[in-house]
Structures
1.
Amino acid sequence: MFAGRLKAIKSKTIDGRFFIDYKNGELPSKLQLVSRSFDNQFQMPILFFITVLFLIIMKLDHTMFAITCSWVFVVSRLMHFYFHAIKGALVGRYRTYAIGWVAILALWVNIFINNLN
């Protein structure tokens, strides 16, 4: 993101003073897209971190199911970034977002099932 902003400033696409208070101008569309995608990467992972914390507390973090779901979530976030910021494919982006949600949901179902026993 920093490199993209620096490139935009050097090419005079945007005035560098814009980044002081984010007024008097607008980011180029590609930089807006990357910036929004970067912000999105910090929303759903908070739920994932809370889920992993519960897995650790309940000593379920070492199961193959938890490990697989966790990796599925991580890969889904990387693919979400790819579809959002690089390829710009809306359908792929939604699918990878849904896969991440399903992975978190599966981990919570696993927590509840193991807590009932």
Note: The chain has two domains: 1-28, 41-116.
2.
Amino acid sequence: MHGVDLYWFFPVVKGAFFGLLAMALHEVGHLCAALGVGLRVKRVGLGWKGMYTVREAGPPGKNVVVSAAGPAANLLLIAFWAWSPIFGLANLCCGVCNLLPIPGSDGERILGLLRESSKSNSLNPALYPLSGAGAISPERISSDRREKSVDPAA
């Protein structure tokens, strides 16, 4: 009589472990950034969509930094690919998926904050590279507004 083959079990558990580790380190990135820019963290939890961090609201510039810190942590951890390809892949997937502008993601939050900041000219100049090489810098917005406000009678 033969036993049940469980050759598939260890890779699945290993992948799940490294996936959860990538998500936890993603949240650590948010936590470190929030504390670094002076925002109070209210709680960290685990919900049906994954792990999350709840913090006090801050100005758009600080919120962009905190929102980008989670995916940035994952993208930096891809450097461990040589040590563990599964860990590197888990971080690649976590970082890239969180940068996509889908509802509830860091990417959607970052895009919304950059749009909000571009409308009010309140984006910190240090964050211009995050906005597409200065594509929405106050100087560009001001020149776009001047172009739109040209008097057609002139």
Note: The chain has a mean pLDDT of 79.
3.
Amino acid sequence: MSRYAIAIAAAAAAGIIAWAVLFGEIPYRMQDGNEISVAGRMVCLPHEQGLFPGPETMECAFGFRGQNGEHYQIGNLEEISKEEPLLEQSVGGAQEFVISGTFTYGDYRNYDVVGTIDADSVEILIRQ
């Protein structure tokens, strides 16, 4: 391999690493449109930091907090809650679920989420 090819490969690798450091969401962007399964709990989604000056409003937009600490919107929450009513009833509680479905990455204005899961299935981990 020539020195020129090695230099190009090194520059490309450095560029990829710099992109990952600057835009740390690459794994989520790469998951766009894929099937994922996330274990976690139902929560009120947190607002984007700095979006609303002063105290946070009191409304609760239901969402999912994975065990990885990331928040997700559930795109078809009303529909999937008919199959598993405990899902919406457990917001803010300790009940854990595994939600599986199609992940959509996106930028969201109001809430600090990495994307939306259109759930195909919900599994209760341990009934509380």
Note: DSSP finds four helices and five strands in the chain.
